[in-house]
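Input for the complex:
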Amino acid sequence: DPKIIQKPKYLVAVTGSEKILICEQYLGHNAMYWYRQSAKKPLEFMFSYSYQKLMDNQTASSRFQPQSSKKNHLDLQITALKPDDSATYFCASSTGNYAEQFFGPGTRLTVL
Amino acid sequence: QQKVQQSPESLTVSEGAMASLNCTFSDGTSNNFRWYRQHSAKGLEVLVSIFSDGEKEEGRFTAHLNRANLHVSLHIREPQPSDSAVYLCAVKSGGSNYKLTFGKGTLLTVTP
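Predicted:
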């Protein structure tokens, strides 16, 4: 059974629209993360949460808003979508700051 | 700002030959190093984690860390065609942040 679930697997959106990427983990972890992987770029850290509190934010744009309704959920809301937002978004989780981060299968977002 | 660079960009080895991948980092306070594997834009699989200078072995995968030289490497013993994938080096800087900084990856192809 998958331990980190990301939904949907693929997502196509039009410029200017808003989408929510879903992430749920069933590993009992306290920390959750979002990373982005764009073409030709390294995997890039976006946010980290610990016990549902924001710990690090490396995303310059306020269009990206994480939402944590439960300890094992960290969704990512993206507003006013742009073609440059096209990427695969990975959710990850860990037991804590120094622990191994386990990654979900990703959501591939395409903005037309 | 941590910078992580991997070399070579791509590597082809024959089945059974040793494969060696390199990673350099810029932040001397870094204290947490991981190698991940990614098959065809899928999720990441952690291979080996290392926290102190020296060597750490996990099955056929061995990481070597030399923090004075800002260098960590991965050696794959007896690689198989199923090991063909992108290998990613991830580094955590010192301090309380949760962020992992990734290199661009090395594409490994193992030929039969």
